[in-house]
């Protein structure tokens, strides 16, 4: 055998050896096909051998995949449109079924999942009002979508990790309608609170006015009692003073009357000179 033939043989053996080897990464899963039929699906990461030409290997990404489509339009219970943006997280669970169902094509898998999600979403959004969709029942909808796609996912050989609604948008006319309704509801609530507050304020003012009247009445009653007691005491003192020295008492009262009468220089008093009022002017010591 000449050197040229030997070189060709060596090169052929090297090529044949290279075609007999294949490597599976940690992030991959694979199937071994022989004449197009699946021979093995339990291939672990590492270096493996196969029969050249007769056997082929298909590798697939076993990491978590994301289905993220453009927002879809759905009708609510009151026949109003909402734009819903969602995503799905999934990964390969059964590589043989995954290859058989969709040929190992991720795009075909996403399309099949999208059909299921869209169909079930129409049912869920169609049973709810816009307010329910926007405000309170998004978690319930997502839970039902996860349950709805589990069976189709098994048929596709994949596992659903999560289904999430990213955003629910309203068309402009629907947004304005929702805004007006929410504003009306808030205004009604505010009016009710304001009315209740005014009623409570009236009750408090009425109680306060009643308490004020009671306090004033009691104070006036106590004042009258005190004045009466003072007047009685004054009368007793006057009577005692009068009984002790009647003439001095009359003189003191006359001085008090003079002082009160002639307090202002602008006052004019017309009396007869012989009036009893001027008794102590004429007779200081009667």
Give me the secondary-structure topology.
Blueprint: H1 3-20, E1 21-24, E2 28-34, E3 37-40, E4 46-49, E5 55-61, E6 65-68, E7 72-75, E8 81-92, H2 95-102, H3 106-126, H4 130-136, H5 138-156, E9 158-169, H6 172-244, H7 246-261, H8 279-282
Antiparallel strand pairs: 1-4, 2-3, 2-5, 6-8, 7-8, 8-9
Helix pairs in contact: 3-5, 6-7
Molecular structure report:
- The protein has 286 residues and is α+β, with helices and mostly antiparallel strands.
- It has helices spanning 3-20, 95-102, 106-126, 130-136, 138-156, 172-244, 246-261, 279-282, and strands spanning 21-24, 28-34, 37-40, 46-49, 55-61, 65-68, 72-75, 81-92, 158-169.
- 58% of the residues lie in helices and 20% in strands.
- Strands 6, 7, 8 and 9 form a four-stranded antiparallel beta sheet that branches.
- α6 packs across α7.
- The longest helix is centred in the last third of the chain and has 73 residues, at 172-244.
**Mean of pLDDT:** 78
Q: Could you say which structural class the secondary elements and strand pairing correspond to? A: alpha+beta
CATH superfamily of the largest domain: Band 7 domain
| Poorly predicted sequence stretches spanning 5 or more consecutive residues | none
Assigned CATH class of the largest domain: Alpha Beta
CATH architecture of the largest domain: 2-Layer Sandwich
Number of helices: 8
Please, how many domains?
A: 3
Strand content: 15-25%
- Total beta-strand segments: 9
Which percent bin holds the helix content?
55-70%
Characterize the overall form.
rod-shaped
Biggest beta sheet summary:
4 strands, antiparallel
Taking all Cα atoms into account, the compactness measure Rg is 54 Å
Note the quaternary state here: single chain
What CATH calls the topology of the largest domain is Tetrahydropterin Synthase, Chain A
Distance between the termini: 182 Å
